[in-house]
Amino acid sequence: MYTRSNHTVNLSPRFRILSDDQIAELHLATLEVLRRTGVDVQEPAAVERLAGAGCWVDGRRVRFPAHLVEWAIESAPSTVMLCDRNGRAAVALQGERAYFGTGSDTPNIVDLETGERRPVVKEDVARTSRLVDALPNIAFMMCSGIASDVHEAISDLHHFEAMVSNTTKPIAFTAWNLDNLKDIVEMAEAVAGGAEALRRSPFCALYTEPISPLMLGPEATQKLMYMAEKGLPTIFTPGMVTGASAPVTIAGALVQGNAEMLAGFVLAQLIRPGTPLIYGGGLLPIDMRTTLMAYGAPEGMLGVSALKEMARYYRLPMFHFAGCSDAKTFDEQASVEGALWVMMAALSGGNLVHDVGYIDNGLTTSYQQLVVMDEVIGMVNRFMGGVTVNAETLAQDVIDRVGPGGHFLSDEHTLAHFRDNWVPALLDRANYTNWVAAGRLTLGDRATARARALLEKHQPQPLVPEVTARLAEIVARAERRVRGQ
Fold first, then answer.
1. Widest CA span of the chain, in angstroms?
2. Contact between residue 93 and residue 345 where contact means Cβ atoms under 8 Å apart
3. Is 224:233 a contact under the CB 8 Å cutoff?
4. Among 30, 46, 177, 341, which is least packed, fewest CB within 10 Å?
5. Any residues with CB less than 8 A from the CB of 431 and at least 6 apart, and which?
6. Treating both helix axes as pointing N-terminal to C-terminal, what angle do 250-271 and 20-36 enclose, rounded to 10 degrees?
């Protein structure tokens, strides 16, 4: 017998790519690759640590017993909390929660004033950070460029300085080598108020990668080990190109990428059990006609979503993709591919979802793409909220009150709830006459205007002068180091 309930029933939409049996097969195949083939570990200290834990070592080739891999998975936290710059909890990477942010290290940007593609300069990283700080649906910042107007050996330090000075939101950063990483961590500790404060309330996470296929390069391994020693979060994920640096089949790429990540997870957990690590990454196909990696390919969306299901199986946070496109400018293709990625990431339950604003096969950042994808994320977030079912929303009394042939426009229930519906800031809902009267503005026109307005008006919370001076001092010290002074 059906009994009416007064409680709220609200199911968030989800979908699956893999069956339980397929996930188990992928896990077992990964264990076999790690046992039989192993990984080329190019950092001697890491080889020594792995050998001491019971791995089989032949020179740099390290093979992993299954029990050690499964121990490392269990040792890694299922939740990684990233705080904002002020130490307040901001991004809880766990379960199915999706947080969207920008991408990292593109050499080019589409100039907001001229519309031309040009090399990134440091001020672009600062401006993108201010825009991220202002956009309501962008939760974290990656540098979105490689500054061409600073010394290339320490451009990563300049990126971090520009980001942390222009947004309070969490930061995912890259570091070119161990020395630079130490400088960046020192900068982060200065902002947080010390090493223990940063460890307790981390506002940033390192992004570094194994080398596909099946290699832990010396610099990535050194950085992973240092972050583990510090107890700080690390995104350790591969960037595979299927058909080039990974098998062309999605299942094969999943096995290889899984093996690469889990080898690093074993190392990090041996150094410091409980080291916060973020699983995930990309397995994007190569387009054999162009030999370029295809950001908008459905196979990439399938593969990354399948990786999320492996992350769910392991109870690990997931580094996902969204808002990116192979289009060379902000156009219809950029909108379609970017929006599909956002929806796929949300439906998959990806956690730290990056590359919002990427175009041009990952080589260019677009302000327009970033601003429009912020709008799309807001729309998708509303969709993911599902349908609320309770006594108030069922509206039985309202239906009875209005009755046949009436209308709901002036009913108090409508007045109380119409603001529950999502309202766009950029997407146009006017009629044709009003659209023409307003200047026939396209979505690109409105996105450019919104980006300009936010950059002109928004002022992020500044760092205190003492911290600003300390960051500048660390960067200047690095400048002297790389110039041999």
1. 85
2. no
3. no
4. 177
5. none
6. 60
Which segments of the chain have a pLDDT < 70?
1-10, 485
Each as own residue / partner, the long-range contacts of residues 43-51 (CB below 8 Å, 24 or more positions apart, any chain) are 43/216, 43/218, 43/221, 43/222, 43/225, 45/225, 46/216, 46/221, 46/225, 46/267, 49/267, 49/270, 49/271, 50/266, 50/267, 50/270
Q: Is the pTM of this model over 0.85?
A: yes
2-50 residue pLDDT tens: 444 556 656 788 889 999 999 999 999 999 999 999 999 999 999 999 9
- The enclosing H or E element of 194 equals none
Which residue matches tokens 């519906």? 421
SS3 track for 409-450: CCCHHHHHHHHHCCCCCCCCCCCHHHHHHCCCCCHHHHHHHH
- If we measure between CA atoms, which residue out of 82, 360, 430 comes closest to residue 235? 82
Chain-centroid distance of CA 325 in Å reads: 15
Give me the residues paired with residue 81 across strands. Answer: 92
pLDDT at residue 6 in the model: 55
Q: Where are the beta strands (DSSP E) in 243-367?
A: 277-280, 282-287, 292-293, 318-321, 352-356, 358-359, 364-366
- Determine the Cα–Cα distance for residues 239 and 355; give it in Å rounded to an integer: 13
Q: Where are the alpha helices (DSSP H) in 12-121?
A: 20-36, 44-52, 66-75
Q: DSSP secondary-structure letter at 467?
A: H
